[in-house]
Design a protein that fits this description.
Layout lengths: L1 H22 L2 E7 L8 E10 L4 E8 L11 H39 L15 H75 L3 E6 L4 E4 L1 H7 L3 H4 L14 H14 L1 E9 L5 E12 L5 E10 L1 H15 L9 H18 L3 E8 L2 H8 L1 H18 L5 E6 L2 E6 L5 H14 L4 E3 L2 E3 L3 E8 L6 H17 L5 E3 L2 H22 L3 E10 L4 E13 L2 E3 L5 H7 L2 H22 L6 E4 L10 H11 L7 E6 H5 L2 H14 L2 E7 L6 H6 L2 E6 L1 H5 L3 H16 L3 E5 L4 H10 L3 E3 L7 E2 H13 L1
Parallel strand pairs: 14-15, 17-19, 19-20, 20-21, 21-22, 22-23, 23-24
Antiparallel strand pairs: 1-2, 2-3, 4-5, 4-8, 6-7, 7-8, 9-11, 9-14, 10-11, 12-13, 16-17, 16-24, 16-25, 17-18
Helix pairs in contact: 9-10
Bound molecules: ligand C2E and calcium ion (2 copies).
Ligand C2E binds next to strand 17, helix 15 and strand 21.
Length: about 750
């Protein structure tokens, strides 16, 4: 029963616990079986949560004593607890303060007096241990005081020692520096001394130092090398020990004067070496003076210039010698001639200048080459030198031109003999390599004072005479004559008048017809220039050579071309049918770089088609600078201008080049047509046959007779030109000729 009851109460108690747990604060009644009874007793419980402790506190009392229920609330207990706690805190604070006072005193003292080390005075109330610490502390402080003083004293001593030491170091450093600078100065002085010694010893120049009385004090090694004298042989002596005796007393006097005046002298001197040889030297002497301007020493240096002199000599030889033949050159000749003229003038003497020019030398150079040509020149110079007198001077002007200056002529026949000897010494053949060559010369002679008063005149007049010798068939000598001089003047005059004649249009063109042999019809004209000088018609042989020589020929060729264009233009305007006109072109005109363009411009100006123009060039023109000529010819050919080779048979045409040239016609030279001999005839027939072979037109010029024409016809010659048909005629006649031809 009790167990049942207990279970009931337990259940109720569980419910109560649940409530308490749920409500946290409150009041409840419940049943309870006390341990001393088996009867349940009703009880009350008051409960409250203490969250800080996570606890719910409750107090129970029997139901019968509801007034006994006391609920302990924290609000009621807290003041009592707080008062008790504060009291305890206060007591603890004072107790600690009393306990730690000596310690604080000690700490404060130590902190305050750490640097002064004052003894510690602790109060009487100090604890025993602290008192002990204090006294030990004080002993230590005392000791510390003593040590500090001792240290201070020691520091003072050491600072004094340090200062002294520092000052000593400074002094010593200054001394050291001074010493170093002194050493450096001495060293550099020594270096300089050494340097000068080296310079003195190793200089290439010989050096002599003398005292003020010109007594040699010292010499260097080069002195010995140059002069051959050892120092001991020179020291104490005067430098004139080297004198060669080749220079005058005046020379030395001037040297000393310059030395006294300027303090120095330099120049060339000729000295004698110990072995007796003469040595040209370059010498420079300077005076050395003390601060009071008194001469103390003389300093001379010199070097051997014999090598330099030798070179100078060689250069002068080279400048005055022809490198190939070693003969004097033009400059040397002129110098000698000038000297000779002065002498002849002084002594009223005579002299002759022989201008020697080898005949056809160009052919040798062209055919055998320049090497062989040079060899010929050397041999010729040797041969001539063998037949002249010692006092005559043979020189080479250049090329194949030599000049012989003869200062030993007595009369004209003497000159003739000399010239004759020269010509005959060349008669023997020259052996060059494996070939034998025959070489002649043409000589022109001018004499002083008759034919010239100065170098230039004499050479120029001898040259002129030489040209006359060439003109007269070469291999001969010709004496200059006044007539030649006049010719020369004429030449110059003509040149000037050609120039003005071209400007004034005094030149006119004659036209000579060319005839087709089978049909005997006019095919074309050749333009031939004439000079209408004040109504007098002058032929080209009088002025063409001069125009060629002076270079006026280029202008003249273009002049002719322009006149031809004007003529053609006129024919065109008149309604006369045009025919081609051939213009003779001088060799050098083709060298003009802009010739093609210039000619284009002229033709364009008169609106003439290129096909109406033909150029006649001689074989020599065509063969000169063949590559350039070919180029120019081809450019003209492209434009329609055709070419014929004039005077064919007289030159040295290379058939292979002829084949390459844009040539349409060969013109057989007049002299082959003129000549009646078989040789000429066979040449004509060969040229005609060759032309056919090469598919070239062939024309014969200078046809004067019907027989000549018939013969040419039988040979198959294409065209003919000559007096037989017509002479060159003025423009108006040519126009008439065309018109007649058209009518007939
Ligand atoms: P070339 O070119 O050989 O001219 C032919 C020369 O022979 C012309 O002499 C002409 O008049 C002449 N001739 C023509 N047929 C006969 C004939 O049947 N019998 C004779 N005895 N002679 C005849 P020309 O006019 O005195 O000219 C001489 C040379 O002058 C020309 O020879 C030519 O080389 C040159 N020449 C003439 N005019 C000019 C020119 O305008 N320019 C240049 N560069 N040279 C020219
Ligand atoms: Ca001609
Ligand atoms: Ca001709």
């Amino acid at each position: 029963m009790k167990e049942n009851l207990s279970a009931e109460i337990a259940e109720e108690f569980a419910t109560l616990a649940e409530k308490v747990w749920g409500e946290k604060n409150g009041f409840h009644s419940y049943s309870w079986i006390p341990s001393n009874s088996s009867n349940p007793a009703d009880k009350n419980i008051a409960f409250r949560e203490i969250p800080e402790l996570r606890l719910i506190a409750g107090i129970t009392a029997p139901h019968t004593r509801p007034d006994m229920v006391i609920v302990f609330s924290p609000q009621k207990l807290l003041p009592a607890f707080a008062a008790a706690f504060l009291l305890a805190l206060l007591l603890a604070f004072f107790a600690t303060k009393i306990l730690v006072r000596p310690l604080i005193q000690f700490v404060q003292h130590t902190a305050q007096n750490i640097s002064t080390f004052e003894p510690l005075h602790l109060s009487r109330r100090t604890y025993k241990e602290l008192a002990q610490i204090g006294s030990t502390f004080n002993i230590l402080i005392e000791q510390l005081h003593q040590t500090k003083e001792q240290l201070n004293a020691e520091q003072q001593t050491s600072e004094a020692v340090h200062d002294q030491l520092k000052s000593e170091i400074l002094t010593r450093e200054q001394t050291h520096e001074k010493l170093l600078s002194e050493i450096a100065t001495r060293k550099s002085a020594e270096n300089y001394l050494q340097l000068f010694k080296n310079l003195f010893e190793h200089a290439i120049e010989g050096i002599i130092v003398t005292d003020k009385d010109a007594r040699i004090l010292t010499v260097n090694k080069s002195f010995t090398d140059i002069t051959g004298y050892q120092p001991q042989e020179a020291i104490g002596r005067n430098p004139n020990m080297l004198s060669s005796g080749q220079q005058s007393a005046n020379f030395y006097r001037k040297m000393w004067q310059s030395l006294q005046k300027n303090g120095s002298w330099f120049g060339e001197i000729i000295n004698r070496k110990k072995d007796g040889t003469i040595c040209p030297e370059w010498l420079s002497i300077s005076q050395l003076k003390d601060k009071d301007n008194n001469t103390t020493h003389y300093f001379a240096f010199f070097h051997d210039i014999s090598e330099l002199k030798e070179k100078e000599k060689q250069i002068s030889i080279m400048a005055y010698r022809d490198a190939l033949t070693k003969l004097p050159n033009r400059a040397a000749l002129e110098a000698r001639l000038t000297k000779a003229i002065s002498k002849a003038k002084r002594e009223a003497g005579t002299l002759a200048v022989l201008f020697i020019d080898l005949d056809n030398f160009k052919n040798i150079n062209d055919t055998l080459g320049h090497d062989k040509g040079d060899e010929v020149l050397i041999q010729v110079s040797k041969r001539i030198n063998q037949v002249i007198r010692q006092e005559d001077t043979l020189s080479r002007l250049g090329g194949d031109e030599f000049i012989l200056l003869s200062e030993s002529i007595e009369n004209e026949s003497g000159i003739f003999h000399l010239a004759g000897r020269i010509l005959s010494c060349l008669q023997e053949p020259f052996v060059i390599g494996f070939s034998e060559l025959f070489i002649n010369a043409s000589i022109g002679i001018a004499t002083y004072p008759n034919d010239g008063k100065n170098t230039n005149e004499l050479i120029k007049n001898a040259d002129m005479a030489m040209y006359r010798a060439k003109d007269e068939g070469k291999n001969k000598f010709v004496l200059f004559t006044q007539e030649m001089h006049e010719n020369f003047l004429t030449h110059v005059r003509i040149e000037n008048s050609i120039r003005t004649g071209l400007q004034k249009k005094e030149f006119i063109i004659y036209y000579q017809p060319k005839i087709d042999i089978p049909s005997e019809r006019l095919t074309s004209f050749e333009a031939l220039i004439r000079w209408n000088k004040n109504g007098l018609i002058i032929g080209p042989d009088k002025f063409i050579p001069i125009a060629e020589e002076s270079g006026l020929i280029d202008k003249m060729s273009l002049y002719v071309l322009e006149e031809v264009c004007i003529f053609l233009n006129k024919l065109h305007t008149q309604g006369t049918s045009l025919l081609p006109v051939s213009v003779n072109m001088a060799p050098r005109t083709f060298n003009n770089l802009e010739i093609v363009e210039t000619i284009d411009t002229i033709l364009h100006k008169y609106r003439i088609d290129h096909k109406y123009i033909e150029f006649e060039i001689t074989e020599t023109t065509a063969m000169q600078d063949i590559h350039h000529t070919l180029k120019t010819m081809n450019r003209f050919r492209q434009r329609g201008i055709s070419f014929s080779i004039d005077d064919f048979g007289t030159g040295y045409s290379s058939l292979s080049y002829l084949n390459e040239m844009p040539v349409s016609t060969l013109k057989i030279d007049k002299r082959f047509i003129d000549a009646n001999d078989n040789h000429s005839r066979s040449i004509v027939s060969t040229i005609i046959a060759m032309s056919k072979q090469m598919q070239l037109k062939v024309i014969a010029e200078g046809v004067e007779t019907g027989e000549q024409l018939d013969w040419l016809r039988t040979l198959g010659c294409n065209e003919a030109q000559g007096y037989f048909f017509a002479k060159p005629m003025p423009e108006s006649d040519a126009t008439q000729f065309i018109q007649n031809g058209q009518n007939s």
